[in-house]
Fold this protein.
Amino acid sequence: MTKRRAEITGWGKYVPEKILTNDDLAKMVDTNDEWITSRTGIKERRIRSESDTTTSMAAAASLDALGVAGLQPSDLDLIIVANSSPDYLLPSPANYLQHSLGATCPAFTIAAGCSGFVYSLVTAHQFIETGAYKNVLVVGVELVSYALDYTDRSTCILFGDAAAAVVLQPSTNGAGVISFELGSDGSQAHHLWVPGGGTVNPVSQKVVDNREHYIRMNGQEVFKFAVRKLTTSLNNITAAAGMTVGDLDVIIPHQANLRIIEFAARTLDMPMDKFFVNVHKYGNTSAASIPLALVEAIQEGRLKSGDVTGMVAFGSGLSWAGAVVKMGEAISNPVGIPAGAAITA
Ligand SMILES: CC(C)(COP(=O)(O)OP(=O)(O)OC[C@H]1O[C@@H](n2cnc3c(N)ncnc32)[C@H](O)[C@@H]1OP(=O)(O)O)[C@@H](O)C(=O)NCCC(=O)NCCS
């Protein structure tokens, strides 16, 4: 019998209504649409309204994903949330999401920055592969705007808020997670970090005055790291799956910057139309980026049953994570309950 794998059987997304365009940002910091578009490919991003919380956004995406899979929250065996922007520092967002959905299963959070969703997907795959759990919800959610310094033009233009979720269930017909790579290089942690608010440099008036509670980034170092990891990880995960990058039907890269994706495409000698791109609409939504692209690729018909996709994320840590995933029958035959309609949470 074919090995048991974690197949994607449900998917959903939530993006806040409020759109922040490049022209809006030009009224806040010394920048302009031409600079942002040419350096990043980003045209606009979504920013939370007051009613959007990490939990509410995660719950909205999760209910859609459960609806597509035809599951109730009570059917879930495990919830994993990828997040670095929690509603509260304690407990973790997974506990709040579990309660919000009305689920009773275990729940935990993985904080691996923009790599968090793929880390979580791979973790969920382990529980399914061993037979420990059957119905696992994996959510990538970020309210990055809370950690952005809207006086720092080098960071505030890049990020946006979003949530996206998948339901994973066992398959034995070849669909699901085929191979993966997880990585961390903590020696480069200082290239993308929040210097204040933790135990070394706790919240204080000085931290706030120095704006150390916001994200700081060395853009050029992160750019070089990103291009390197996107290309090497795509080669590594496809080799581990007994394939080449050219065999992938669709590549889903972390949506950080169009130029990073274009550099990687050139290095790999792959056409740009092999890469799914939605960074122009949402900017970098961190842990929500890969699942948001994955969900839109499914909803737009770019990914079909039998297709094989390679996803690679990179980000704070510095970390990276990639996975090759084969889409199963669920893509063509979702249970089809309209967005959250049959869910009683
Ligand atoms: C941030 C990034 C877009 C900057 O682009 P860049 O080409 O490297 O630009 P530089 O940092 O060299 O800055 C060039 C100039 O533009 C200026 N600049 C920076 N941000 C600007 C903005 N929003 N608008 C206008 N000018 C800007 C800089 O101050 C600098 O000016 P100077 O030459 O007078 O000093 C790019 O480095 C990047 O995308 N890095 C990766 C970031 C990322 O993806 N992070 C998340 C990973 S998960």
